[in-house]
Design goal:
Length: 122
C-alpha cells in the first residue's frame, strides 16, 4: 500500500518554474514603480498615495483637471500634459536623475519661454 494520497499522486512533477524567473525588464532607469528588497517608496510618493498631497501635487492635479474641463477631454495626451506643466512654470533646468536610452539630456534657462518655437504667445 502506498503512503501517498490521491492528491499527492496527481501533483505536477515537472521543473519548478518559480526558480527560473528571469527579470525581463529593461535596464534600470530610476523610474521603476515596483519595489524590491531594500527599495522603499519615498515620503513624497507615500503621502500622495495615502491621500495627503503636497501643494505642488495639488496644483498639478488642479491644473490637469482644469485643462480637461476647458477642452472637454477626459484623457489628455502626453503632449498636452507637458503643455500644462510648462504653463505652470516648469522648465528643464537640471540634469536628468534617470537613465534613458536614446534620449539626449539638455537644460534650459529658468526664465525660458514656455513654448520657444511657437509663433504666437501662449
Amino acid at each position: 500500500m502506498s503512503d501517498t494520497t490521491p492528491a499527492e499522486e496527481n501533483r505536477f512533477q515537472g521543473p519548478d518554474r518559480r526558480k527560473a524567473v528571469v527579470d525581463n525588464r529593461t535596464a534600470h532607469t530610476g523610474l521603476e514603480r515596483r519595489r524590491g528588497p531594500g527599495r522603499r517608496r519615498s515620503d513624497f510618493i507615500k503621502s500622495a498615495e495615502e491621500g495627503e498631497m503636497s501643494r505642488e501635487q495639488f496644483l498639478f492635479v488642479c491644473a490637469i483637471d482644469a485643462y480637461k474641463k476647458a477642452n472637454n477631454k477626459p484623457y489628455p495626451s502626453w503632449t498636452e500634459v507637458l503643455e500644462v506643466i510648462r504653463k505652470l512654470g516648469y522648465r528643464k533646468t537640471c540634469a536628468m536623475a534617470v537613465e534613458l536610452n536614446n534620449c539626449e539630456d539638455w537644460t534650459e534657462a529658468s526664465d525660458a519661454p514656455a513654448f520657444p518655437n511657437a509663433t504666437e504667445a501662449a
